[in-house]
Amino acid sequence: MTKTLPKYQTIFLHLAFWAFVLALPFLLKYSTPPTGIHKKTVIQSFTMTEFFTIFALINVPFFYLNSEILIPKILHKKGILVYLISAIGLIVGVFFLHTLIKDIFFPGQFIPRTGSSFQLLFFLAISAAYRIMSDNLQYEQEQKEQETEKLKSELSFLRSQISPHFMFNVLNSIVSLSRRKPEKVEPVVVKLSDLMRYMLYESDDAKVTLQREAQYLRAYIELQQLRFGDDIEINFNADNLNGNKTIEPMLLIPFVENAFKHGVGMIINPTIDIDLHTTDSKITFEVKNKVNRQYKEEKDGASGIGLANVKRRLELLYPDNHRLTIKDEDQFYGIYLEIS
User: CB under 8 Å to 309, separation ≥6 — which residues?
Assistant: First the structure.
């Protein structure tokens, strides 16, 4: 992931760069007269060192005028022709300043223009390169932030979609129960309040512990056991879970909902097996229910929302770290989920 440097680090790097540029003429000059070199040559070397140090100071505003004004405000908005004219004008202005400094502070001294010309072209090039790199980094950062916001918005929508879908299924269950076993309605509503507490106060967290998610699954399974009683065999295993493992809240419940929705009804000896366990490196979750292939269910508008929702959340949250396998066999339908 591309990250822009913190502001203080950027300022420090700029100061370090310019300190090096200003020190460079002193680093390259003769500190003592070498053998065979006339003293006049050494004096001229000192003069040129001082001149190029002053000229290096001029390069500071030259660098930032190009990178902060000419490129973003002229090249990007008015085109390359206007930029080239402006850059040439800036170079001519710096050359005029160069001549003025030479005439005032170094009268009579011969100082070749090739060195200062090279400096100007060099700083023009690196200021342009700096601006292009800076713009590219900023663009990538903005794109990344926009993508992150988009994913957050989509995840928020997917989470908000799960709760009404869950309530739709549970309320249908309560209506059915009130007709067949009205005495069971009250404990089911009490159990539902526990589930809603989790949905309201914990499902907005980015992650919850796997143990907490397992407690939520167990509460939902107990609610269904109140509804169906001995009419269905439910096997739920979630023992010895790693207490440090976390997971997206309400990620697993759609699979269990789906098992109860399609694994109960016109089925002889309905059975639902739910297994959740962990290793040091991964979470595995398996749900399997009996099905009746000869019985065709009538699908309503909410059918498939839960599974489509959880598949998309897995793609967003664990893009390269999950494996979802659906087993649609003769008498059984099952899912196997692995998150690493």
Answer: 158, 161, 162, 165, 254
- Phi, psi dihedrals of residue 92, rounded to the nearest 5°: -60, -40
User: Which class in CATH covers the domain with range 149-339?
Assistant: alpha beta
Instruction: Provide the strand spans (E) within the chain.
Output: 208-209, 233-237, 246-247, 271-278, 283-290, 322-328, 332-339
How far apart are the C-alpha atoms of 123 and 115, rounded to whole Å?
12
Instruction: Tell me the one-letter amino acid at 121.
Output: L
The domain segmentation of the chain, as residue ranges, is 7-111, 149-339
Q: Which amino acid is at 193?
A: S
Q: Residue 28 — very low, low, confident or very high, per pLDDT cuts 50/70/90?
A: low
DSSP 71-118: IIIIIHHH-HHHHHHHHHHHHHHHHHHHHHHHHHHSTT----HHHHHH
- The DSSP code for 249 is T
Report the DSSP pairing between strands 246-247 and 208-209: antiparallel
Distance of CA 45 to the CA centre of its chain: 55
Could you give the CA distance from residue 91 to residue 94 in angstroms, rounded to a whole number? 5
| Cβ proximity of 307 and 258 under 8 Å | yes
Q: At what angle do helices 113-180 and 210-228 cross, to 10 degrees?
A: 20
* pLDDT tens, residue by residue, 171-190: 777 787 788 778 877 887 87
